[in-house]
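Weekly puzzle thread! Below is a chain. First person to post its structure in token form gets bragging rights.
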Amino acid sequence: MSRNLQVAAASVLIGVIVLALKGAAYWVTGSIALLSDALESIINVAASLAAFFALQISGRPADDNHPYGHHKAEYFSAVLEGVLIVVASLSILREAYYGFLEPHLPEQPLNGMLLNGAATIINAVWCVVLLRIGKARRSPALIADGKHLMTDVVTSVGVLIGFVLVPVTGWPQLDPILAGLVAINILWTGWGLMRESVGGLMDAAPPPDVVGRIRELVSTHAAGAIEAHDLRTRHAGRMTFVEFHLVVPGDMTVAAAHVICDRIERALEEEMDDTIITIHVEPEGEAKHRGVVVL
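Winning reply:
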């Protein structure tokens, strides 16, 4: 089992533990706000399972039907997670509405705070781990899972603060109002996840700093060539695809041009893991005098 799959499997286990703690917190208190937190944890478990299966698919090698690999499967996981977050937020809004119509003070508030607080601490620690590993391994599925947990941690802290204020103020309507605010917050997060994932499915380019670094490496290691133009890049899961046209002197041999291409590819692969590079070599008559200037 790969490192990414191990992390995804651990996310499922941790999600179940957190769900059990938050479910218990709602059970002993009857708080609508704590119910909203528990509902979000159900989505966490479902999303973690989706990420696990997506990582299994994305790790498969290229085949005849998928010659560029299966890396985009991770984006489907992130889109699904965004959809699940939207469904959860609508469910929470429904519960908050009925809770506002028939408000009541939570029972056993101390036990509820302890259970929910323990779940929040576990989520906070695991969120940091997920984001760190996801960014290091450029995994959209793990990053999406980590961002969702980050939102869960923030909303859980807000729920706990509000939960303390309910018995202090003696205003039971504060509980469903807080649940509604949680729903709006996670709805915004779900929209952000879907927007980023759709960008990946649409072959969006890497961040400008990454594209700039690619241009710099091509310029520095293309000695002997004239120019490079029509540079195009895209992301597919953890993979970065780079392609461009390399213009060389008309009397240069194929072997000499191949040496330049090898040098550029080696430089890009050393700097950027999981990179697929395609270079189209052209004679100097095809020069466009724009694009990447060879140093």
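Puzzle host: Confirmed. Bonus trivia for everyone else. The first strand starts at residue 227 and ends at 236.
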